[in-house]
Amino acid sequence: MALVIAGERSGVGKTTVTLTLLASLCRRGGQVQSFKVGPDYIDPMFHRYVTGLACRNLDPVLTSEVYVKQCFAHHSQASEYALVEGVMGLFDGIGSREENTVHPFTFASTAHIAQLLDLPVVLVIDCSRLSGSVAAIAHGYCTFDPKIKIAGLVLNRVGSDRHLSLLKDALKSLQLPILGVLRRQDNITIPDRHLGLVPTAEFSELDAVIERLADLGDTCFDWQSLLPLLKTQHSALSTPHSALSTQHSALSTQHSALSKVRVAVACDRAFNFYYQDNLDLLQKLGAELVFWSPLEDAELPPNIQGMYFGGGFPEVFAQQLTKNTNVLQAVKTAILQGMPTIAECGGLMYLCQEIIDFEGKSYPMVGIIPTSACMDKSLTLGYRRAIALQDSLLVNVGTNVYGHEFHRSTLKANSHQPLFDTYRYDCDENTGFEGWNLPINLHASYIHLHWGASTEIPQRFIQQCKS
């Protein structure tokens, strides 16, 4: 068993409730494995900071339904408790490509994952502007899809004892357990900016906030009811011989006799958007991951055979990045000399000639990609189906990959030989040509890829690093 934390919509406080549960559970001494529905990078950083374990993304678009089940089973088996944080509202998903589904626009939603894993849901309701209407909301969510098991409610942002009394009176007729009550908190704030929460590495007050959340969690939840729901049950699927364990063992065995491939992974405040599963796969395939900082380090790590630049916030640290001229030149030289390099989103921006920030100020970057990355207030967001237009570092021509875009920058010019022709995932609406494959050893794209169900991608990268 495990528990899914869902919201009736975005912004109701799912992450706060999740972190409060995690902090209090860890204070009690239990080991907790957390998961996050969807393609999110930042919420999992906070989970990991609290639990000490890498949070795993559960996303059937980026991977598959089978992989979601395998991932959950594999990573929850060693922990006493397991908790899944949802995405947006409980039933907010995308259009399914399969016909005859009861609710076709809930694919990849929190409800979809809860049903897929057969897990109960705790619904978080923002009560700041509600009293009696809370019952109608709760009733609607409980009855919309009978396959979803609502275990109870968490009432968030409750204003006073009188407010709580009104909420409880309204909910009596539903006989739905109230598993937690969180009052309005003025001393617990997690700052955000243009792509969501500020990452953990930049949040200097995080330890104090987590301590306050743990204090809150000790008193605001019905632990007698919650703990049995959170405890993991190790089914046959979650034994050490699960499909994912077998796959990883096979990959390790295949590459164990070979020498390690040293891959430099940019990891600092500017570059920190990585799916842990991707990093795990690289290691299973024989990579020695060398984490380094384009912000702080004076040179590239020695004896590397490949580079991986994830997403992040290079625009926020553009001034510091541009001053590290030795590293900028070293990265450019390495790519020109043929070093296999993956650059996703923020990594793509870093490899451009310049980053132009929200105020219009220009900061020179690596310059291997002959265009500028310009910050824009409009948000590009969504799942993508991308068709490879040519053979590249990671894919063959004609290959379909599924990824996710999430950025507020645009490129002044697109490649004359783009990597991908892209479409919305849930329909055939074209979203344009995308990606750079110049030179041939570079894969640079705004599209984030999760390799969990596509191990041929990291295998191809490692093989190129060995060449």
The largest pleated sheet is described as:
7 strands, parallel
CATH topology of the largest domain: Rossmann fold
What is the CATH C level class of the largest domain, in words?
Alpha Beta
Number of helices: 14
Q: How many distinct folded domains?
A: 2
Helix content: 25-40%
- Poorly predicted ranges: 235-240
Strand order of the largest sheet: 3-2-4-1-5-6-7
Report, as a whole number of angstroms, the end-to-end distance: 46 Å
Instruction: Tell me the overall shape.
Output: globular
Overall mean pLDDT = 92
What's the total count of β strands? 23
Strand content: 25-35%
**Radius of gyration, in angstroms, nearest whole number:** 23 Å
CATH superfamily of the largest domain: P-loop containing nucleotide triphosphate hydrolases
What structural class results from the helix and strand content?
A: alpha/beta
Walk me through this protein's architecture:
About 30% of the residues lie in helices and about 30% in strands. With about 475 residues, the protein is an alpha/beta fold. The protein has two domains: about 240 residues, Rossmann fold; about 220 residues, 3-Layer(aba) Sandwich (Rossmann fold), CATH 3.40.50.880. Strands 3-2-4-1-5-6-7 form a seven-stranded parallel sheet, sandwiched between helices. Strands 16, 17, 18, 19, 20, 21 and 23 form a seven-stranded mixed sheet that branches. The longest helix has 15 residues. The chain is globular, with a radius of gyration of 23 Å. The protein starts with a strand and ends with a helix.
